[in-house]
Amino acid sequence: MNRMTKVLAMLIIVMVAVTAVFAEGEKESAYPERDISAIVPFGQGGGTDVWARKVMEAMSKELGVAITVTNVTGGSAGSIGISQVWTSPHDGYVLAGTSETPLTIPVTTPITQTSKDWDYFIAGGSPGLLCINAATAQKLGLRTLADLAAYGNKSDLKIAGTTGGLWFALASLVTEKSYGNWPLTWVSYPGSGPAIVATVGGIDADLVVASAGEVKDYIRSGQLIPLAHMDGSAYTFTASAAPINIPAITSAIPAIGKYLPLQQWLGFKVPADTPDDVKAKLTAAFKAAMAQADMVTFAKDQIAVIFNKTGAEAKTMAQKSESNLCWILFDLGKTTYSPADRGIARP
Q1: Which residues pair with 208 in a beta bridge?
Q2: pLDDT-derived band of residue 2, with 50, 70 and 90 as boundaries?
Q3: What is the pTM (predicted TM-score) of this model?
């Protein structure tokens, strides 16, 4: 082989290598090339599950592939499902349906990832309500927040919800001696859906704290009676035959007001080191999904406000929620780890 032949051979090898690199780049930018999985870390029927399924259904139309939603429950604040996403390849093929609740994972479990390690796609959220089983309300004469505040045997009542997160923080404030000092017994369930069903059944729980969108059907049917808006202002529930005026929890427990407002939000997240081109395509699909006409109808039916936040705006919202929730729970002695040790600033 003469010198010229060797040079030509080397050029061919280089060209083949460069072509392979470009081909690989094109392959990466072709995302998604196969179906996507979305893991919801809570049980079926709760707000996180319902919103994840709706958003994923709409996004699948934009991305041109199926998105399968699976419920993986267990662990504090949904840590088992969230961990499954984190330990999967960070390539955009395994998404995490989420709410603000998993933000408390780093202070309630040994898991150290915080909001800085994730990127968020925040769809919407609904007001929080404290509701009572209608049969219990009738039996004990507890049909209003004032009735509950005056009730002398609160230690006999059980309140249901998911440990960690917004509703748990608010329920903890209600029961904490420095605030409500209502000795209700907390009963934990793997998601708002199971907690609501348990309360409607009236066997395992008497009260539940959940979003208006999650309990709307049970309020309409008269199985649950809303006693308080878990915020600093009154709320009118209009998704029923007649409007229901619901007082603010602060009308009975003023001290909680310093922590309010605390806002529910729902959507999904991916590890922050997911490739930028993948996140760009997820962002475009999410924005297109949120702009679909039936998404507005869905949000209205869920008694929710659409947030439609991505990127830095969504991360800022998540970090604010993380700071508020983690420090509330820490101050109440409900955490295993300090937020400061996890790099979470006090609000």
Answers
A1: 131, 160
A2: low
A3: 0.87
